[in-house]
Amino acid sequence: MTSIAQVVGTPAERTSTRDSSALTVKVYLLTSVVVIVVMMLAGLLMRTAQAGWIELAPDLFYQVMTAHGAGMVGIAALAGAGVMWHFLHRYVQLSSFIIWLNYALFMLGVVFILGAIFVGGYAGGWTFLWPLPAQSMGQWSAHAAAAFVVGLILIGVGFLAFYFDAAIGIKRRYGSLMQGLGIDQLLTGRVDPNHPPTVVASSMVIIINTLGTLVGAVVLIVTLCNLYFPELRISALVAKNMIYFFGHVFINATIYMSVTAVYELLPQYAGRPWKVSRPFLAAWACVTLFVMAVYPHHLLLDTVMPRWLLAVGQVVSYLSGIPVLLVTAYGALVLVYRSGFQWAAASRWLVLSMFGWSAGVIPAIVDGTIHINKVMHNTMWVPGHFHFYLLLGLLPMLIGFCLHVFRGRLDFNEALERAVFWAYAASSVAFSLAFLVGGWASVPRRWAQHLAEWQTYDRAGTVAALVVVLATAALAAGIGRRIAAGARQDGYRNVA
Amino acid sequence: MEFVVTSEDVTHGFALYDSDRRIVAQIQAMPGFVNRVRHHFTEPGKYEVLCLEYCGLAHHAMVAEINVAPKDQK
Q1: For residues A345 and A403, is the Cβ–Cβ distance under 8 A?
Q2: Residue A123 is nearest to which of B30, B37, B57, comparing CB atoms?
């Protein structure tokens, strides 16, 4: 395995690069944990209102809902990019300017989005389902919708720059993205077991999310034009296809960026390397295609869609995440089994992420079945499905990463850390189940006001959400303290 | 019964709920397109149609009623 030292120039340059890298990762992850806690509070506010325990005006509810959706998807991507950058820059040369440009554009985009929502009153949902941004019935102006759209475009441009830079780095070192993905090894059968899984995952993310973000950018630009020139229109069905392709790929990419933490860090606790194998490369090659082909499962209730495309949506739903999930979860089990695995703060969270990612497949497959989708589509089952993935799969990857990378002199109290871990895990399961059971009972999603008969599920979800928020806030505070202490005391040396 | 569903403004969801407030059929209502969904009513009574695609600030207020009567009460 080649270290970054062999890639980047002189010792002085390497020191400078390491300092810059350490700061990059700290800023990306610190921003992420803070925003995640704030967005969780927004979610708690919505659940409390649905539970009937507080009054929240519908316009404010839908504004908070829009901010929560855009905020969580965006920050999951920012954190994932930070994790991917941290590991990928060990193997290929990446530009510090570009990663900071991405951060700057992200922050500028956030300013536009928050202004659109809380100054302009925009409440069109993060999915901006055309023509809703332009059809507010007087509730928000074209300027407010435009600010939201421009904010998303700015964020997308930043991510495209990051992906192009990473693609150039992989091309320089490995020849092409296909070779980074290991397609040549797959075809020839000559597998290099030391080919870094991080490079495989990063190549896949670059391919799918460059396409996904570009498609999103096109539909956003059309939406922007339509706001000021209403005669410039797009078919609602075409826009819907483009939005769900973009949205599905973008949110999936957040997990595939963050899973590099599992590949890089679990071996350190097991004392064994993560060897790349032919099934591993085959799984990632399949998922590269499946993740892009699966989005029609969001359109199963549009009978005007070609029937074969809906069938593809259902079949690929069953297959989509499973290959990588299997090789990763199975690979993790093999790695841990009889290895003398160190159950430390970080490794516990990484193992939890494997559980969340694996179990999260079940509700996804259920809702991807056409017959079931007819009664579950846009019920609470849907947020149950993605909250399960994100709370128990993605977030534990990020927390495990932070606890490992920012480890140092300020460790958590062991008993407290265990208590927070179990409180988080149990409450996240309970919170997701409250959504799933509500969906099973036909409770609609995205309703500002709930009927009394639905509020049993809402109240259970609210109590669980409160524990999730408290546990996450405690973790965020601990991570923040570690970062601050590391910055003062040890600088880059705290960053593995 | 076949429901022929479209929309004049934005995309909505057309979800048919039975008297126990369980979804029995659902389809999307999209401007410029016509989607169709069939449901065989076996029980008379009050049914509701709720919007299940987020459509703006009045989303949760989009509720309509359908009364299904036995054949001999037509």
Answers
A1: yes
A2: B57
Count CB-CB contacts under 10 A for residue A88: 27
- Spatial distance between the Cα atoms of B1 and B36, rounded to a whole number of angstroms: 10
Q: Which residues of A touch B31 (CB under 8 A)?
A: 131, 236
CA dihedral A391, A392, A393, A397 (to 10 degrees): 80
- The closest alpha carbon to A469, from A427, A434, A418, A422, belongs to A427
Q: How far is B62 from chain A (nearest CA, A)?
A: 10
Judged by phi (left if over 0) then psi (alpha if -120 to 50, else beta), residue A305 lies in beta
Q: Is the pTM of this model over 0.90?
A: yes
* Of A221, A204, A196, nearest in space to A283 by CA: A204
Residue of A333, A355, A375, A370 whose CA lies nearest to A432: A355
Q: Note the pLDDT tens digit of each residue in A163-205.
A: 999 999 999 999 999 999 999 999 999 999 999 999 999 999 9
Query: Cα(A321)–Cα(A290) distance, rounded to whole angstroms?
Result: 8
Phi, psi of A68 (to 5 degrees): -60, -45
How far is residue A353's CA from residue A390's CA, in Å, rounded to a whole number? 9
Residue B11: φ, ψ to 5° = -75, 130
**Mean pLDDT computed over A236-242:** 96
Using alpha carbons only, how large is chain A's radius of gyration in Å? 22
Tokens representing residue B39 in the block: 């449901």
Amino acid at B60: H
d(CA A343, CA A345): 7
The answer to whether the CB of A58 falls within 8 A of the CB of A64 is no
Measured in residues, chain A has a length of: 496
Chain A residues touching residue B34 (CB < 8 angstroms): 304
**What ipTM does the predicted assembly reach?**
0.95
**Residue B25: strand pairing partners:** B16
- Sign of the C-alpha dihedral, residues A418, A421, A424, A425? negative
User: H helices of A175-277, where?
Assistant: 177-181, 183-188, 197-228, 236-258, 260-270
What is the SS3 assignment for A191?
coil
Q: Give the pLDDT mean for A85-114.
A: 97
Query: And the tokens for B5?
Result: 């569903």
Q: Chain B residue with minimal CA distance to A125? A: B54
